[in-house]
């Protein structure tokens, strides 16, 4: 609740708050089920303490295909999801298709 209500969280995308650390959802993975340092894969973007969220660095957005085969694929309609595992991307695609929304729009809202 503290992170979601904080103006500092605005425009940071989806965030995960756990044990005082705040991570961007993109690129973050649960690494250990029994540790207070359970998440990794992405650096924390902030912390929560005394009922306050402090943003220490802005969440980075995914890098886009700008040249070569990646650019050709995007021009042909491919949607880039560089910071999601295949299983995560698949779930977002299924949600987009089930709701009748364009896949690219759903992916862009997630990041």
Explain what this protein looks like in three dimensions.
The structure is a single chain. The protein is of the alpha+beta class. The protein has helices at 2-5, 68-75, 86-99, 103-110, and strands at 15-18, 21-24, 29-30, 39-40, 46-49, 52-55. The strands form 2 sheets. A 4-stranded antiparallel β-sheet has the order 1-2-5-6, with no helix packed on it. It has a two-stranded antiparallel sheet with strand order 3-4. A hairpin with a 2-residue loop joins β5 (46-49) and β6. It starts with a helix and ends with a helix.
List low-pLDDT spans: none
Instruction: List the secondary-structure elements in sequence, H or E.
Output: HEEEEEEHHH
Sheet-strand content, in percent, reads: 15-25%
Q: Kindly state the mean pLDDT as a whole number?
A: 87
Rg, nearest Å:
16 Å
Overall tally of structural domains: 2
Shape: elongated
- Specify the structural class: alpha+beta
Key words describing this protein structure:
alpha+beta, 4-stranded antiparallel sheet, 31% helix, 111 residues, 2 domains
Give a short synopsis of this structure.
The chain contains 4 helices and 6 strands.
């Amino acid at each position: 609740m503290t992170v979601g209500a904080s103006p500092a969280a605005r425009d940071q995308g989806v965030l995960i708050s756990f044990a005082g650390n705040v991570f961007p959802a993109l690129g973050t993975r649960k690494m250990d089920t029994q540790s207070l340092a359970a998440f990794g894969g992405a650096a924390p973007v902030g912390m929560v303490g005394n009922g306050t969220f402090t943003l220490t660095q802005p969440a980075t957005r995914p890098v886009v295909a700008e040249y070569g085969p990646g650019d050709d694929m995007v021009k042909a309609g491919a949607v880039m999801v560089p910071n999601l595992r295949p299983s995560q991307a698949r779930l977002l695609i299924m949600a987009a298709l089930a709701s009748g929304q364009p896949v690219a729009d759903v992916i862009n809202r997630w990041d």
